[in-house]
Amino acid sequence: MKNNDDFFKIQSASSRIKAKIVAEYFPQYCRILMKSPKEHRRIVYLDLFSGPGKYGDDNPSTPLLIAKACYEDVRLRDNVLLAFNDKTYAEELKKNFLAQFPEGSFRHKPRFASRTVGEDEAIQKYLSRKPEKINYSPTLLFFDPWGYKGIDTKTLATFLENWGNEIFLFVNIKRINAAIENDKFDELMESIFPTTIDYLRKDKKYKATVYDRLNLIMDNLADEFKRVTPNLYHCAFKFREEDSEATSHFIIHFCKHKRGYELVKQIFYDFDNIGACLEKDGVYTFDAKVQGSSASLSLFGDLNVLALSQQLERAYKGRTITARRLFDEHHPGKKFCASHYAKTLRKMEEEKKVTAIFTDGKQHKVSVLITDDCLLSFP
To answer: What is the pTM of this model?
Structure first.
């Protein structure tokens, strides 16, 4: 296993995609929050293990990518607070950050800390805030639960109860899979799976494949969050290692609002390079070994269209509804994103399984768009 110094020498393809996913999401998340009539003073990006900001090969990591996206939008420059923490790399990150974004670049001065996560009272207090009537600092937290004492799943789930708070959870699935049955990691595993660890230890032994074990682990992790904070949406993105067929880690996004859920699925879709079969396990996937290949995208894309088409035929038989309203009604709780719905409905229109009419009087190059002006009639 690489140590931190080795990890930050050269950016892997998976690390590049992980950084881009979070950096693509955060600015759009901010714009959604700023449309809300609720008042807030600032929007916070909080990374508790931020690294040095760039790799030895000069490729930027998440902190600098997010800072760039926020700096390029004047509203975000004025409303975003960037807060980074790293026990090892805080000073190096600050140096790299200020070289690109000097003092005064943002209205809220970025923060750089080198605290020990799980032992620092300020971090614990911030994450454990009880829900308030108005959340003046809605926060997107990027967090890796591995190895941190004191920051457990219950704390993170409570953090999500505040309006606007969301989490990208980085899960090293290989480490967790190995640690579940290693008594040296009992305390850590019980903090991550406080109510299901005994079940998980027992049940995973009866799963036939690694694939089944990993899905079981991820399902239990999501359930732990939902036990504390019901009505959460979650969506996972899986990374396959560059040098094997194994899954190395996941990013899971948790939020309470369907707009965030809609947005993260679309971003996951944009970075999914195999066209993952979502009807099977609902996990978008990046595989570094198949970059540039369209074979997998074509195969699984057809399976997703077929599965979603069947669902829509059953759910909307005999109904007339706008494409946007159909999407808003149907996608919560499903892993399909807006692009899946558009592609599926166009295929259904081609096969005469739905009739689509635009009511805006404009010429359109495609038969269906996910808008209020596209009216769908199901036979």
So the answer is: 0.92
